[in-house]
Amino acid sequence: MSDAGQWCLIESDPGVFTELIRAFNVQGTQVEEVWSLDDQTLEELKPVYGLIFLFKWQGGNDSSRLHPEADLSVDENVYFAKQVINNACATQAILSILLNCPTIDLGAELDNFKDFTRLFDPYDKGLAITNSELIRGVHNSFARSDPFFLDQTDQSSSEKEDIFHFISYVPVQGALYELDGLSNGPVNLGPCTGDNWLEKVRPVIQERMSRYTSAEIRFNLLALIKNREDVYRTRIGEIDERMRHASNTNNSSELMQLSEERDQLLQRIEMEKVKFKRYERENSLRKHNFIQFIYNIIRILAERGELQARIEYARKEMSKRIKDRAEKKKGESGSKN
Amino acid sequence: MATSLFPTPVPRRKYPVEFKAGKLKRDGNTNWLKADERKGLVYMDQGDDQLMHFYWKDRKNNAVEDDLILFPEEAEFIRVEQCTTGRVYLLNFKSSSRKLFFWMQDAKDDKDEENVAKVNRLINDPQAGLAESRQQQSSAGQLGSPFQNMQNMDDLAGFGMDQEQLLQLLQGQGFGGPPFTSTTPAEPQSATAATSEAGSGVQTTESNLGFTSEQLGNLRNILSGIQVPGTYIEIEEGTRQPDVSLVDVLTPSAIGPLLNNPEIASALFPHLPANIERSPEELAAVIQSPQFAQALQSLSIALQSGQLGPLLSQLGLDPSAGNGVEAFLRAIQEQANRRHRDHEDENTEDHSGDRMEED
Which residue stretches, if any, does this entry annotate as coiled coil (chain B) (predicted)? Predict the structure, then answer.
C-alpha cells in the first residue's frame, strides 16, 4: 500500500485514546477503561456515548457472521465505514462513536468531514477516513518517533502474531448498533433508549467475551464518556443551587450534607486534573525517541568504566531470567492465597 | 461443607505425586503451544527398574502416553510465567532442549505449588521424596474438598476461572475486570472480590450448587468451545546464546545514582521530551517509567533484529554495533576508549571522524 496506507499501531490505553480524541479537536469527552460490566460501574461512567471493545482477532468472525440474522442494511441514520486499513481500527472505532453521537461537539474539522462523507457508501467512507490527512496525522502522531518503529519491529515476537481488533457499540436513534469495520454493515442489535442501552449491550459483550475466551483472554473495554470534570462542575452547579435554597430555609443539616458532597466533587476534579497531567506526561514519553538518551547513558557508563560490569550483570540476569520469573510467580501466587 | 453428597470412590493406590493436568503441544511448526484438551493425569513413581519415572496418562481411557525416566537434577518442573491466564507448567530438561508443557486441570490452584514442589523433590532427590510422600499419605485423613460434589465441573479446570467466575459468566454478570483487560493478568481472587463488592448480585456458592440441567447444558455448550485461554505461549528456544537486554543493563538502581551527579544530569537533559522538567527528580522518574522500559526493550529488540546499523553510524558507531545489544554496548565502549586515548595523545591528529559532535 502507498504512503497513505502507513498507519501505526496504537496502544489501547485510555490516556492514548483520550488524547487522540482531543487531537481531533473534539470537545468535552474522555475515554476510560471499563473494568466491570456491573450496574454500579456503568452508572458511574454515565453519560456513556459508546463502548469500544478490543479483542484478539480471529479471522472470519466479523459482526455480520456473529449475527447472521441481523439486518445489515445501511440505515442512513448510522454512520458506518468499512475498515480499509489494518492498523487504523483503533481510530476507526473511535470515529464510529464520535460520528454517530449528535450530542458530542466534534469541532469544525471532524464536523466537515462527517458532512462531506455522509452520503458515501461504507467503503468510500472507509477510504475517506484512510485518506484524511487530519485523521491519519493524529493517529500517526502516536507512532513512536524512532525510525525502527515504522517497521513494527517493536512488537516482541509473541505479539507479532496477534492481531487485535476494535469494534464499537453505540446507540443511534433508538437502536443499539455494533459497528465493526470488517463487517458488511452496521449490526442492529434491537431497540434501546439513551437510558437503557448499556443494559442492552451487556449481554452482547458477554456473549463476545465467552466466544473469545475460547481462544485467549485478551480483552479490553473502553468507554467514551462525557468529560468528568464537566460532569462534576455541572453537579457542583446544581449543589450550589440547592445550597442557596437550603440556606434560605435555614436547613443546616442539608447544608452540611451538600457542602460535603461539593467537597467530594472538588476532590474528584483534582484527581481528574492529576490524571490528565499523568496522561500528558506518559504520552510525551510514549512518543519520545529515547535513542539519544539511552546512547548517552551508556556512553557515560563506558567512560566511567562501569559498562563492563553492567554487561556482565545483564548476562547473568538474562540467563537466569526465565527461571527467576517462574519462581517469583510461584511465590506471588502462593503468598496471595 | 464436610459431608460429600457423592459416594467416595474406592481408593486406589496413590502415587507419590499426582495431579490432573493436560498437555500442550506445539502448533504446527510455529513456536506456539496449543492445549491438548484431553483430561489427563501427571504422576511420578518409582518404576520396576528402581528409577524415577514421570508419566502422563489420559484419564478417559487410562492410557499412559508419556513415560520418561528422570535422573536426579536432570530436569526441573517450573511455572511458565508467560502464560498469565491458565496455569501452565514446563518440564524442562537441563541437559537438552527438550521441553514438555502441561496445563493444570484441577479447578482449584491451591495444591499447585505443593505438587510442583513434590515433583521437583522427586526429580532431585528421589529417595527423600518417596519417603516424604509415604509419610504424608499415611497421615492423610483429610476431608474431601469442598468442591468434591462438583466433580462434573472437572471440565472447567484449568481455564483460569474458578467456579464462581464461571457462574458469573453463565448468569450474565461481568467479570471483575482482569479477564477482559489485555494488560493485567487475571487474578481470580481479586476478580471475584471486585464483583461481589460491587453488589452485582453474585449468588452464594451454596445456592449455585443446584444447577438445573438446562444450566448444565448451557455450561457444557460454552465449555465445549473453550480451549485453554492463554495457551498460546512462546517456547523459549535455548539454542542460541541469548543476547542481553538493555532493560537489565540500564536498571533504575544502576543508573539512578548517576543522575545525582549534576554533570551527568545536564548531559542527559537535552535528550528528554520537551515538556519534561529539567530536574534530577524528573530524570529519576523518567528512568523508572514504563515508557522508558518499553523504549529499552524496543531498542533491544531492534538491535537484535540487526536493522539498526545505518542509524547507529549517526551516533559515530561502527555499523557492526547494530548486530545485537552486546555489540552495541561494546561499540560504545570502544568509542569511549578511543576518545580517551585521543585525549591522552598529545600530538593528536584529526579525530572528528567518529566523534559525536553535539554533546
Answer: none
Residue type, B104: M
pLDDT tens track for A183-235: 888 999 999 998 899 999 999 988 887 776 555 556 788 999 999 999 999 99
Per-window interface: B 298-317 vs A, CB < 8 A:
298-299, 301-302, 305, 307-308, 311, 315
- Collect all residues of chain A within an 8 Å Cβ-Cβ radius of residue B113: 330, 333-334
The winner for highest mean pLDDT among B97-111, B121-135, B327-341 is: B327-341
* Chain A neighbors of B356, CB-CB under 8 A: 299
Inter-chain contact B182–A12, Cβ cutoff 8 Å? yes
Picking from B84, B103, B223, B215, the residue whose alpha carbon sits closest to that of residue A210 is B223
| A165 catalytic per annotation | yes
CA dihedral over A18, B176, A88, A194, signed as positive or negative? negative
B82 phi, psi to nearest 5 deg = -65, -25
CATH number for the domain harbouring residue B313: 1.10.2020
B41 touching A (Cβ < 8 Å): no
Q: Say if B178 falls within a structural domain.
A: no
Average pLDDT over residues B63-91: 81
Contact flag B173-A325 (C-beta cutoff 8 Å): no
At a CB cut-off of 8 Å and minimum separation 6, what does A265 contact?
Answer: A232, A235, A236, A239
How many domains does chain B contain in total?
Answer: 2
Catalytic residue among A67, A101, A139, A165: A165
**B276 lies within 8 A of chain A by CB:** yes
Of B107, B135, B163, the residue that ends a domain is B135
The answer to whether B136 contacts chain A (CB < 8 Å) is no
Cβ-defined contact of A287 to B175 (cutoff 8 Å): no
- Domain-ending residue, one of B135, B165, B200: B135
Query: Domain spanning A14-151+158-226 has what CATH number?
Result: 3.40.532.10
Minimal Cα–Cα distance from B334 to chain A, Å?
Answer: 8
A100 inside 8 A of chain B by CB: no
Mean pLDDT, to the nearest integer, of A263-286?
93
The SS3 assignment for A58 reads coil
The domain of B61 spans 17-135
CB contacts of A35 in chain B (<8 Å) are: 176-177, 181, 194
Closest in B80, B227, B249 to A214, CB measured? B227
Q: What is the CATH number of the domain that holds B56?
A: 2.30.29.70
The answer as to whether B232 is a domain residue is: no
Quote the radius of gyration of chain B (alpha carbons, Å).
Answer: 28
Question: Which residues 6+ apart lie within 8 Å of B46 measured at CB?
Answer: B16, B52, B53, B126, B130
Q: Give whole-number Cα distances, A248 to A240, A242, A251, B96, B337, in Å.
A: 12, 10, 8, 84, 81
Q: What is the pLDDT of residues B251-265, one digit of tens each?
A: 998 899 999 899 999
Mean pLDDT value of segment A144-166: 45
**B306-322 b/e (C-beta count within 10 Å ≥ 16 → b):** eebbebbeebbbbeebb
